[in-house]
Recover the amino acids of this structure.
């Protein structure tokens, strides 16, 4: 019986992949205006269908409560009128971005008269595997569409009905604009086997984008036969150099940790020069504790701040995504850089320093997608970078690193125009 | 016993990976001048050690002859004074290229005063797995070094001794410039198990670049837990549109097929509009046959050219890398585009046409790394594109597509400079 079901699923996934491939071929050739019309129609459909979306979300919420999900998880899952409106407005914002496809990235002539241009083209079919909020279904589907790609969206099972209701609006928008509805699809089931199948559909999926924790990313790298654009959660660091401005340190560290604890750009470990710890740390830790943050410190930190709990070695490698901060004293900038190289996830790190030479050394030596000076790590975000919207922050080194917006969801090709040139020799 | 040897190999490979990682950390921080000095010293060493390199090559040649390798394979393997000098000159040419590391790719300000720059950084440690000529060892090692990367080079077993002799010069150059010799390494053995180990060394290798045929690429995608930048051989097409200039057609097709039959940009299939075949094809096929090319044609082609052999279905999918050309009549440009979508390898395709609308349609619709108009597919080459040198032509869609030169062997990071900004909301 199980085999029969798996065979059915396999067949369904193959059909879904073939339809996505066909849709991507069409989408790659349509004018930007048609894609924008589809996005605006999807936004209108989402507003019109808000009650149905909220009702579907109710089914997911009920199941989540029965399964005992935490309050924070339930809040991430919840859709209300305001959040549906925010999703619709997000689609319109993506429609308003310039069309990346066809843009000329470079253009030059060769001495033999050949004219060479590098122009943006869609990536093709993108498979997105994510664990989090249902609004990712709207954002990720819309960004893929804007860049001329077809998308296969595999969200978490806890948001299955919400995501299907959102998908219905995206597909209605596509149809109203005369574009193939198969440009955005979801597997028909929440079975985990569908993920494994996606990772092997190399004939119909060009890129896999996993968004989630380390175990998801590792599974994807282990199983995927398709190129992967990994989005790992961030184990982000803020480093207080001895030259840091004390007032700025309080404000920026508080923001970097506590503005939102659940996003990937939240600071998880604070490093502080031991030479300045007695002066810099107490007001910073005071403010954090007053805001409800738990401090896990090394020996030196616990001496300075008795309310700190002793950190265990695993704290340096933990992405809490919660109101907890690991704090460690270092013997200077090189030790800070070495700690980050060993424990960081190459996402986002920030140095607070008035000493420009120290800042330059940190910006040069820290090997993360985003390296900051005197700014909160919570700015690690495509919108804050001015990219309009993002699928997430890529932590790999190939193709897109840092925020992944519409431009990062494209590839390119070379157009070579000649007048009968033959290669000599 | 086998297990003991495998354990030893595993341990050796891990040590090699750790040394490469350490070398990459250093290389990423050194000025371009030091890397160029290492490349020039390596060129000098190669000239001084030419007799040793040629002697090592003699051992490979002897073994290759005993194993009965073809004349063409033996020629690819052979190193003589002239070829060693060409390799040394190649290193100097790479030294003369601008340093890609640290270059600013983009720079902008945000309304909140944040200053954001995207700057080039090395990829890290690159594992290159290749099958072909020993000179790839020099070229690939030098390109990786120029871009600030450490390289682990796993060439074909048939060129093992030649490659080790070349490696000795690269490492001598590194040492003379005060750089770590571990920046360019080879596995200590020709055992195939070393490849499998490389593909799982995700803690010490950042990118795998396979160069070779479909079976190598497929094995790499199947086994690799590391991101892959694939270089597949090209099943390239030239398409004679009915508006093609007859004289240009003869010259360009002859060059595209016969200039060098063994390179990945060589045309393997010729498509021709049936409406113009009687006029266009005979002089083209005459010239090819006179140059020693075998023609495998569909029915229509065999009627026009009696010396053509009938093509079998597999011919449309074959990269001959030899003096053989598959030739097929098509009912117009859409059929040509569809044939290429079905049988091509997304490498390089060219249309010969005087009709500008047909050319524009072909350039827009053909989804290959390089699409040409009125030019020979043999121009698919980083040097011919003005990139200085290349590792090969990437046929994937992520990161680098088309020629892979020093710039394509880099990643980037974002530098964000602030004055104490906190993210609102």
């Amino acid at each position: 019986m199980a085999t029969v079901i798996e065979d059915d699923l396999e067949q369904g996934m193959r059909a879904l992949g073939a339809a996505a491939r066909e849709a991507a071929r069409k989408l790659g050739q349509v004018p930007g205006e048609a894609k924008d019309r589809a996005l605006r129609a999807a936004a209108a459909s989402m507003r019109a269908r808000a009650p149905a979306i909220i009702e579907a979300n109710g089914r997911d919420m009920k199941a989540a409560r029965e399964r005992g999900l935490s309050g924070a998880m339930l809040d991430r899952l919840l859709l209300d009128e305001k959040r549906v409106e925010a999703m619709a407005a997000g689609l319109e914002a993506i429609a308003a971005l310039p069309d990346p496809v066809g843009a000329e990235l470079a253009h030059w002539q060769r001495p033999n008269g050949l004219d060479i241009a590098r122009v943006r083209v869609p990536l093709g079919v993108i498979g997105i595997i994510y664990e989090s909020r249902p609004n990712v279904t709207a954002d990720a589907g819309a960004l893929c569409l804007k860049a001329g790609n077809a998308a296969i969206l595999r969200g978490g099972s806890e948001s299955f009905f919400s995501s299907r209701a959102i998908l219905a609006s995206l597909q209605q928008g596509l149809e109203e604009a005369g574009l193939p509805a198969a440009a955005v699809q979801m597997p028909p089931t929440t079975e985990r086997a569908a993920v494994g199948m996606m990772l092997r559909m190399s004939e119909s999926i060009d890129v896999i984008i996993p968004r989630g924790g380390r175990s998801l990313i590792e599974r994807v790298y282990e199983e995927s036969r398709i190129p992967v654009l990994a989005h790992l959660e961030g184990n982000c660091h803020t480093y207080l150099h001895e030259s840091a401005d004390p007032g700025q340190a309080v404000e920026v560290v508080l923001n970097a940790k506590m503005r939102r604890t659940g996003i990937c750009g939240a600071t998880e470990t604070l490093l502080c020069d031991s030479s300045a710890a007695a002066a810099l740390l107490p007001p910073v830790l005071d403010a954090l504790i007053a805001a409800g943050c738990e401090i896990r410190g090394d020996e030196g930190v616990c001496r300075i701040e008795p309310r700190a709990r002793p950190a265990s070695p695993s704290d340096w490698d933990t992405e809490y995504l919660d109101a907890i901060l690991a704090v460690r004293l270092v013997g200077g900038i090189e030790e800070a850089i070495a700690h980050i190289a060993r424990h960081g996830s190459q996402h986002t790190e920030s140095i607070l320093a008035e000493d420009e030479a120290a800042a330059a050394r940190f910006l040069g030596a820290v090997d993360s997608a985003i390296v900051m000076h005197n700014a909160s790590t919570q700015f690690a975000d495509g919108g804050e970078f001015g990219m309009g919207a993002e699928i997430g922050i890529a932590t790999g080194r190939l193709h897109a690193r840092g925020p992944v917006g519409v431009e990062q969801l494209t590839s390119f090709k070379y157009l070579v125009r000649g007048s009968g040139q033959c290669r000599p020799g």
About this structure: Residues 236-379 of chain B form a domain with the Aldehyde Dehydrogenase; Chain A, domain 2 fold (CATH 3.40.309.10). Chain B touches chain A through 69 residues (CB under 8 Å). Chain B has two domains: 2-230+396-415, 236-379.
